[in-house]
Amino acid sequence: MSKVLVISASDSEIETMKEAVKVLDEFGVANELTISSAHRSPERTTKLVADFYQQGGKIIICGAGLAAHLAGVVAAHFPLPVIGIPLGSGPLKGQDALLATLQMPSGIPVATVGIDNAKNAGLLAVQILATSDQQLEQKMVEYKKKLADGVEEKAKKLSNG
Q1: Containing H/E element for 61?
Q2: Global confidence as pTM
Q3: What kind and span of H or E run contains 6?
C-alpha cells in the first residue's frame, strides 16, 4: 500500500514530478505516481483521492502549472496533508501557479514548496511521515548530516584552494 500519492496535472510535467518519487524511493516510502487534472478530469481526481484515503494513504503531493488548482481540489477532498508543487510552465514561468497554490482559502491548507521543487516536496512528505516512524526519522537525521558534511567539505576545499 502506498503512503504517498504523487499526482501530476499533465504528462508534460511528469519528469519534474519524478524528482519527488526519487526522494520517496530513496527513503523507502511506498508511493504511486499518476496523472490527473482538476480541470480536465475532475471525477478521476476526486475518485483517486477518495480511493487513496480509503486504502490508508497518508500524504498527497500535487504538481500543476498555470492556474494550479489541483492541490486545492485535492485538499478539499482529502483530510490529511497535501503538498503542492507549483510548476514552471506557461508564460508566467510558474509565478501564477505559485500564487494559486499558496493562496488557499481558510480551512483548506496546502503546504507549498518552490516552483518546480519536487525534491523538497518529497522531503517534506518524508519529514511528515517521520513524526510517527522512528526508522524514517533516523534516515532523515542521517540525510541532514550528509548535507551538513557536504558543506563542511566544500568549505574546507575553498580554504585550502
Answers
A1: strand 59-64
A2: 0.95
A3: strand 4-8
Q: Residue 83's Cα: distance from chain center in Å?
A: 5
The CB density around residue 44, as the number of other CB atoms within 10 Å, is: 15
Burial of 33 (0-12, 13-18, 19+ CB in 10 A): middle
Yes or no: is domain 4-130 CATH 3.10.25.10?
A: no
**Which pLDDT tens digit goes with each residue over 87-100?**
998 899 999 999 99
73 φψ region: left (φ > 0), alpha (ψ -120 to 50), beta (else): alpha
CA atoms of 108 and 2, how far apart (whole Å): 23
Residues of the chain with pLDDT under 50: none
Domain ranges of the chain: 4-130, 134-161
> For residue 68, what are the contacts with CB-CB under 8 A and spacing of at least 6?
9, 84, 86, 87, 96, 97, 98, 100, 101
